[in-house]
Structure formats: structure tokens, C-alpha cells
Design brief:
By secondary structure, the protein is of the alpha/beta class. The chain has 22 helices and 20 strands.
Length: about 650
């Protein structure tokens, strides 16, 4: 496992690293400057000092001083600075003419630096950081030849040696300023590139990868996927990844698991069922659980749900089964393989007996419970079938029932009775309401009309769409009453509302004498004229052509308009349109909803529009749910548009 770091450590590391490099460079450059100063500046100072010594000696020699006098001068010079030593060595030319000084001669013979100086070369010997040893060759000048008669101009007559202390070394101020200027610039550049490189590696790229992973999860809408950054060694990024993945874990848990029992829920069960070809589903429901809640309180009810989950989990005898918590007081046991009838009977009986024999202790109170079980096997509609078996088992007071096809018919019959009663109650209690969806002019996007859409209001004030009850209402001959309610409420609403409104009617309504008479009566009563448009459902097929034609003529005498709804489905007979004298065509949603992606839909829609324009019939596109769809229907020449892109059905103030 790679060693983790933090941004605090990373920044400290960069600063220390760059500081170390920069100080090392500064130290090396300072050493170079010091060495350079010693070699150049001290050499200059030593040379000047040597030349002064030489001039002093030369002046003495001109006055005719002898060797002893010169030695005194040298002695006095050496006393000027206790750390400075001056020595003078004669060359061969001088020795031949004036004699050898034995001590100097011996030093000359063994000191290679003196020998090098006698070759007319200045020699700088750096002893250490505190002193230098300088050898200066004295060459013969014209004025020297007066005394040194055996010498020629340029000959080395002797060597002056100075052992010279280094104190208060002088360095160019310009060099120092330039150095620190360059040092500052280089140091800043080093820090910048170090920070850039490290942050790009440890911050920018990990965060970019982190964001890309989040976007992928978001786009795929896959809450099971997790962020996994490769080669990430930064604790902060790792913490972000951990926090985000924990959040996804929490979301996934809330999405797929029951918060009370921590068991997988209905959504998880549906996914698992879809992954297997065959299986057995057992739904276990606690009998009269609502009564337990009402009698002992919700907290006690929750305790019983938790304990029941534990009991069921510990009493599933066959390996491979998984327990799920469904809504309210229901549990599901799913086997991803077939069980025999005897195995199912044995299992359900065992579960029932275990629950029956369990005494639930809640806050000092003993509570007893029983369960009813519904079973289904196979793959398709497994959950629905098990639920049907459960409901029928409760109704018939059976411990358990296994679903068969006859149960479905019985269940449908029961549901029909339920919805029939619900429809009747809604009619009697004034719970049928029209909602109005806006229709806009495609060129201006201004609302110019509305469509009245039927809704049933349930006990919670929620609106139920007609898809849930309309067909059943027709079967039970309740449909005319629903139509009458919508017509009366819509006419009343738009009597003082300045906009056009369309009302859906079927061929069945037109053929129904009662509804037919109600429509004509209300048109004459309210005198709304062209504010009312009747949308005839083309999808049903206009087979009773003469009756429909007669109705249209009668309605249009009052000024009302006619529209053919859902055009593009059913017969879509253009010949009918030519004879029925309609004012609008509403192009079916199946043509419009995918018109931005389906080429065939666009071609059919364009054909309808071209025909309508030639017949001087206005067109309306329904199910316009996005800007892309709106832009296409507008470009094709549709006159009006309707859909959730402009507004959902709602009440009008």
C-alpha cells in the first residue's frame, strides 16, 4: 500500500525541498565568490603590497644601503602586522655578482613555488581561508642595470615573498546585488514549478479524476457505482472519496433497504427477481397490524416489525433464500429456484406456527400476532401474483394460498368492484374535476387556449388520471355522467374567462342521446360560441360517419369549433377530414414525443401538416415536452403546441 500524505505535509515538503536546493545553491555560489575573491582580490592586494615593499627596498638600494640595512627594513615591515611575513630571495644573476646568502639559497632550492616565481610567474598560494602565500618576481628594468651590470632587461633578479593574512575581504556590491536578484528570481521559479508539478500531480489531476467519476455516476444514474481513484496518495482526496462513497452507500441503503429493519426492500426484490428465470416468492403479512399500532402505539408496532424480521430470518430453513421488507407490515422471502408444493406448504406452515407461538414483549406488555402468506412461482409478474394470492388468502381467511390463473380473474373482479364504487363515490361527492393545460401559439409562445382534462380527486386531495378509471366507467355505464360533469364545470368556468377551451368527447358521447342533448343545451345556454372546441377522439374510429357529421353541423351553428384528437392513430382517414369540416387537427402524442429522434415520426407529421394547410385546418401538436421538440414542430409549421414544456394541467384562478 502506498504511503499516504497530506496537503500540509506536501506543502511543507515542497518548501523544505526548494529551500534546501536554493540554500545549497546560495552556499555553493558564496563559496565560489569567496574563492574567487581570494584568488583575485587578495592577489591584487598582495601585489600592491609587494610593489610597495619593492619600492621601499629599491629606494634604500639607490641610497647605497647595504644588506644589513635592507634586512632592517624587512624586519620593520614584518613588525607592521604580526601575521604578515616578508621574505626576499636573490636570483642567480644577483648571487653571481653580489654573492650567495646561504639561507635564502637553500630555501630557493627546496621551495618549488619560489622556483616557479623565478620563471617570471606570479604565484598565489592559498594556504587556507585566513592567509595566502604570494610570490612576486622582480624583473630588471633599465634603471636596474646601473647596479646589476650582468643582467639584462626582463631578467628575474629576485623574488619577494609575502605571507599575507586575509581580513575584511572586499567583494563587489554590484556582484552581491546581482547575485541576490538572480537568486530571488531562480528561487521563485523553482518554487513555482515545484508547486505546479506537485499540485498538478497530487491536487489537480486527482480532483479532475474525482469530478469525472462523479459525472459518470450521475450520468449513468448508477448509485451502485463508487468513486475509485487510482494512485491517489493524498489523505484529503482520499477523505473526499471516502465521504462521497459513504454518501452513496447511505443513498443506496435508503433506496434499497428498509430503515427500520435494515432488510432489502421492494426495489431490491424487483431487481433480484429480474435477474432470475424462475423462483418462488413468499409474501408474509402480519394480520391486523394496524390494530396493534392503534392499541399499543407506533413504537410498539416498530418493535414487533423488528422482532418479526429476526424471527423470519432465523426460520428460513432452505439455503439460498433472501428475506425482504416490503411496505407497511409485509415481508417477502425469495428463492431463486423452484420449490415443490410440499416444500412450500411445509415452509409456510412452519413460519405461521413460529409467529403464532411467539410472545412479543414490548414495554412490559405481552402481544400476540399471526400472519397470512401469499405464494407465487415463475418469473413474470411474480410480485403481483404473490400479492394477489395474499389478498385472496386474507379474504378467504386462509393461512396461505399459492397463486393460480383463476385468482387473477377473481382479483380483477374485486378491483373492478373497488374502482366502480370509487367512481360512484366521486360522482356523488363532487370529486370529479377538470384541470386545464395551456396551449400556446408556436410563433409567440403565448397561451391562447386550454384543454380541459378530467381528474378524480381522492381522499388526500391528490388527482387521479382517467387512465385508471375511464375504461371501467365505460363498462359500468358511468362514463356519460363523467362527461356531463366536465362539460358543465368547463362551460361555467369559461363563461367569464377570456380564452378558448377544448373538451374531449368520444363518438360514444355523440351517439348518446342524453349527452348529445346536454351539449346542445349548454351551448345555447352559455352562448360561448367559438370559445368552445370539441375534440373528437379519432383513435376510436369514426365509423358512424353520418351521425358524427350531423353533430358537427349542429354544434358549429352555435359558433363552436371542432377538432380531431389523436390524429395519426386509428384510421387517420384524410377523406373523413375533407367531409367533416373540422377546424383543428391535434397530432397524436406518439408522433410528437420522439419527433426530434425518430425520422419516420417527422415525415408522418410533416404530411399531416401539409394536408391540413391545404385544407385550411389549424394544427396542434400535443406532448411537446422539450425545447428540441418545440423547435421542430415550430419549424414544420404547426400552429399550436401543448405539453409539459409549456405547463402541466392545473386549476385556473
Amino acid at each position: 500500500m502506498n504511503k499516504r500524505t497530506t496537503y500540509k505535509k506536501l506543502i511543507l515538503k515542497i518548501i523544505l525541498l526548494t529551500l534546501t536546493i536554493s540554500l545549497s545553491v546560495a552556499f555553493l555560489y558564496a563559496q565560489y565568490m569567496k574563492q574567487n575573491a581570494i584568488e583575485k582580490l587578495t592577489k591584487v592586494d598582495a601585489k600592491k603590497t609587494t610593489q610597495l615593499v619593492f619600492q621601499s627596498l629599491y629606494s634604500a638600494m639607490e641610497k647605497g644601503w647595504n644588506r644589513d640595512d635592507i634586512d632592517k627594513i624587512i624586519h620593520r615591515l614584518n613588525n607592521v602586522d604580526e601575521n604578515m611575513i616578508v621574505n626576499i630571495y636573490r636570483g642567480d644573476i644577483v648571487n653571481k655578482q653580489f654573492g650567495i646568502i646561504q639561507k635564502d639559497y637553500e630555501e630557493t632550492q627546496k621551495n618549488k613555488l619560489i622556483q616557479q616565481a623565478f620563471k617570471n610567474t606570479e604565484v598565489l598560494n592559498i594556504v587556507d581561508d585566513t592567509a595566502i602565500d604570494y610570490y612576486y618576481p622582480v624583473t630588471a628594468q633599465n634603471e636596474c642595470l646601473k647596479c646589476h651590470t650582468q643582467a639584462s632587461t626582463g631578467d628575474v633578479l629576485g623574488v619577494i615573498n609575502i605571507y599575507y593574512p586575509i581580513k575584511d575581504l572586499k567583494v563587489s556590491l554590484s556582484s552581491i546585488i546581482n547575485f541576490f536578484l538572480i537568486f530571488t528570481i531562480v528561487f521563485s521559479i523553482i518554487i513555482f514549478f515545484a508547486l505546479f508539478a506537485e499540485f498538478d500531480k497530487y491536487l489537480v489531476r486527482p480532483i479532475k479524476s474525482f469530478i469525472n467519476s462523479i459525472n459518470t455516476i450521475s450520468n449513468e444514474k448508477n448509485i451502485k457505482k463508487r468513486v475509485s481513484l487510482q494512485n491517489n496518495n493524498v489523505e484529503e482526496i482520499d477523505s473526499m472519496q471516502t465521504v462521497f462513497n459513504n454518501m452513496l452507500d447511505s443513498i443506496e441503503f435508503q433506496f434499497y433497504y428498509d430503515s427500520l429493519t435494515s432488510l432489502p426492500n421492494r426495489k431490491k426484490l424487483i431487481e433480484i427477481i429480474s435477474e432470475h428465470e424462475n423462483g418462488v416468492l413468499i409474501i408474509v403479512d402480519i394480520d391486523k397490524f394496524q390494530e396493534i399500532n392503534d392499541l399499543y402505539g407506533d413504537n410498539s408496532g416498530d418493535e414487533i416489525l423488528i422482532e418479526t424480521a429476526k424471527i423470519l430470518k432465523n426460520n428460513i430453513p432452505i439455503n439460498g433464500a433472501q428475506l425482504y421488507k416490503l411496505h407497511a407490515d409485509e415481508y417477502a422471502i425469495y428463492y431463486p429456484f423452484d420449490l415443490s408444493y410440499n416444500e412450500i406448504e411445509k415452509l409456510t406452515t412452519h413460519i405461521s406456527q413460529v409467529i403464532d407461538n411467539t410472545t412479543f414483549e414490548v414495554e412490559g406488555t405481552q402481544i400476540y400476532a399471526s400472519v397470512t402468506i401469499g405464494v407465487a412461482y415463475g418469473n413474470l409478474f411474480l410480485l403481483n401474483y404473490a400479492d394477489i394470492a395474499l389478498k385472496l388468502a386474507k379474504k378467504k381467511k386462509k393461512r396461505f394460498l399459492i397463486y393460480d390463473s383463476n385468482m387473477h380473474i377473481e382479483y380483477e373482479y374485486e378491483q373492478n368492484l373497488y374502482w366502480t364504487k370509487k367512481i360512484k363515490d366521486a360522482i356523488n361527492n363532487n370529486m370529479i374535476e377538470p384541470l386545464y393545460q395551456p396551449i400556446v401559439d408556436t410563433q409567440t409562445k403565448q397561451v391562447v387556449k386550454y384543454e380541459a382534462l378530467m381528474r378524480m380527486v381522492d381522499r388526500n386531495g391528490e388527482y387521479i388520471a382517467p387512465i385508471h378509471f375511464l375504461e371501467l366507467a365505460k363498462k359500468n355505464k358511468l362514463y356519460p355522467e363523467l362527461t356531463q360533469i366536465i362539460i358543465e364545470k368547463t362551460f361555467k368556468k369559461f363563461k367569464n374567462f377570456n380564452a378558448q377551451v377544448s373538451i374531449n368527447i368520444s363518438v360514444e358521447d355523440i351517439l348518446n342521446e342524453y349527452i348529445h342533448s346536454i351539449i346542445i343545451e349548454k351551448l345555447h345556454e352559455y352562448k360561448l360560441k367559438d370559445k368552445i372546441v370539441f375534440e373528437i377522439l379519432e383513435s376510436e374510429g369514426i365509423e358512424n360517419y353520418e351521425e358524427v357529421k350531423h353533430f358537427i353541423k349542429e354544434v358549429k351553428k352555435t359558433g363552436a369549433k371542432i377538432s380531431i384528437d389523436d390524429f395519426g392513430t386509428g384510421y387517420s382517414n384524410f377523406e373523413y377530414l375533407m367531409k367533416l369540416d373540422v377546424d383543428y387537427i391535434k397530432i397524436d402524442a406518439s408522433m410528437i414525443k420522439n419527433i426530434d429522434k425518430n425520422k419516420n415520426s417527422k415525415i408522418v407529421t410533416e404530411t399531416i401538416i401539409n394536408f391540413a394547410q391545404k385544407m385550411n385546418i389549424k394544427t396542434i401538436a400535443e406532448f411537446v415536452h422539450s425545447k428540441d421538440v418545440y423547435d421542430i414542430v415550430k419549424s414544420l409549421g404547426v400552429d399550436y403546441a401543448q405539453g409539459y414544456y409549456f405547463g402541466e394541467p392545473k386549476k385556473l384562478d
